[in-house]
Amino acid sequence: MRLTHMTERIEFISKKPGVTEFGVPTEEEKTTEYSCWAELLNTPMREFRDPSTKVGIRKESPNFAIKFEIGIPIDSMWHVIWRGKEYGIDSIDPDYDKRNVTKIACKAVE
Fold first, then answer.
1. pTM over 0.70, yes/no
2. InterPro entries per the record (predicted)?
3. How far is Cα 17 from Cα 73, in angstroms, rounded to an integer?
């Protein structure tokens, strides 16, 4: 495991509908499920073109490596907060051979 490379702090959050004390449903509430140190593997920038305006848009797609066994299973419906931005989880790839890291591919949430 490359602990010296794990210099980025990320948070895994879930979004669940909330309920007031009177039982009235509210908007989705963000709950921090887990926070850990991660290694930033790469951040490819993808360019997309809006067909109506013909303007290009760049989106970040960071990939992280975290410790293999964090104690709780990571849900693919969770989101990742990194440097104040929110990212959806595209894929989770645990390394069952060496059992040292889990790779997580993310995509920027609009």
1. yes
2. Phage_SPP1_head-tail_adaptor, SSP1_head-tail_sf
3. 21
